[in-house]
Amino acid sequence: MSSPSPLSNESLGPSGPEPDRQHEQRARQLARSVKAPAQFLSFWIAIALPFVHLPLLTQGLGDPQVTLTFIALLAVNVFALYLGHGHNQ
To answer: By the 8 A CB rule, do 80 and 45 touch?
Structure first.
């Protein structure tokens, strides 16, 4: 038989469901506190980005770099619309 370990397992803390629940509650609270500002910011970014698109369109999309910039900004706009669609409902 092996001898008992000189270190105790008491320093590890409880391994029950209580710390898991506290961690989940903190994560939910953090998500709720971040959700409203993220929706607000995304909503207003989605409103403002079309004004950035206009100069690119008036310049023309003949240059590949301008076209790539336009497509990237369009993708960011769609993502911002998706994130900000629930703002102020």
So the answer is: yes
Cα Rg, the chain, nearest whole Å: 25
The structure tokens listed for 37 are 């500002």
Instruction: Specify the residue for token string 């310049």.
Output: 59
**How do residues 4-28 score in pLDDT, each as one tens digit?**
666 555 555 555 567 788 888 888 8
Report d(CA 17, CA 73) in Å as an integer: 45
pTM: 0.64
CA angle 51, 57, 59 (to 5 degrees): 115
- pLDDT category of residue 51 using cuts at 50, 70 and 90: very high
Q: Among 55, 82, 48, 85, which Cα is nearest to 70's?
A: 55
